[in-house]
Design brief:
This protein is mainly alpha-helical. Helices cover about 70% and strands about 0% of the residues. The chain is elongated, with a radius of gyration of 29 Å. The chain starts with a helix and ends in a 17-residue tail after the last helix.
């Protein structure tokens, strides 16, 4: 009875070890690039991201430059990295696809995904915006290279959201100085928001704070010019009325006075 138990246990152990060895993924064991590609796709579909990355990483190094599998390998490699949460590696592989194969059918998709991966690394507006700036440039690359792509409307929407993060960052910097009554510094940041992102959701709030900064240091002419614009853009808005209370509209030059 004991011997039988140990024989069964040994057999089970052999099967377990054999199964483990059988499922170990070794990219170098495939004889051709085509076989490795198919295996990599299989691993990707099974969500075995490490195996997929190993396969497609080898393919991006081994495939000839003109091989049609190469841009697809970059795509799968980038997407597997993204699924792993490795945003920088994903963005770099997506960008490599765009740079190396700008006319490929996947290139506009890759540009959009690269922009998204870079943006994910800028986790909130208060942090260093370096990756946000790279995302901004990548969205603009997509719009510039592929103006007829069906992805353009979505890219434009995401780009507008990203730009609002930049507007929010500069607004918050201006508000920091405003609250400390360093009005000249606050004005610089507020004006930058309105100059670079005039249509962002932060534009109105920025304008209201800018009016208050102008009033605080008696920049009457600047306050008048800005309030004139605000009354036209936000007619009957209560916040605009309150901020611009007592500030007259800017004088409009007459036709005769404009003539030298």
């Amino acid at each position: 009875m004991v011997d039988r138990f140990w024989k069964c246990a040994t057999a089970a152990l052999v099967l377990t070890v054999g199964a483990a060895c059988q499922h170990e993924f070794k990219p170098a064991s495939f004889k051709t690039n085509e076989q490795l590609y198919r295996a990599g796709v299989h691993e990707f579909e099974r969500q075995k991201w490490d195996n997929a990355i190993a396969a497609f990483e080898k393919l991006t190094l081994d495939l000839p430059a003109r091989d049609s599998l190469l841009p697809r390998s970059y795509w799968y490699l980038a997407t597997a990295h993204e699924r792993q949460g490795e945003h920088l590696l994903a963005a770099q592989s997506y960008s490599k696809l765009v740079e190396s194969f700008p006319d490929d059918s996947l290139s506009d998709n890759a540009a959009l995904e690269a922009a998204r991966s870079y943006w994910r690394m800028w986790r909130k507006p208060t942090l260093d915006p370096t990756y946000g700036e790279t995302a901004l440039a990548t969205y603009n690359t997509l719009l510039g290279l592929y103006p007829t792509s069906p992805l353009v409307p979505q890219a434009q929407k995401e780009l507008a959201d990203l730009e609002n993060w930049f507007a929010t960052k500069n607004y918050d910097a201006g508000l920091f100085y405003f609250r400390r009554k360093a009005y000249d510094s606050a004005i610089l940041y507020f004006k930058d928001v309105l100059s670079r992102w005039p249509n962002s959701p932060m534009a109105k709030e920025t304008s209201l704070r800018l009016v208050e900064a102008y009033k605080a240091i008696r920049y009457r002419e600047d306050a008048s010019d800005l309030c004139t614009q605000l009354r036209r853009k936000y007619a009957n808005d209560g916040e605009v009325k309150a901020a611009c209370n007592g500030i007259p509209d800017a004088a409009v030059p007459s036709a005769t006075s404009a003539v030298p």
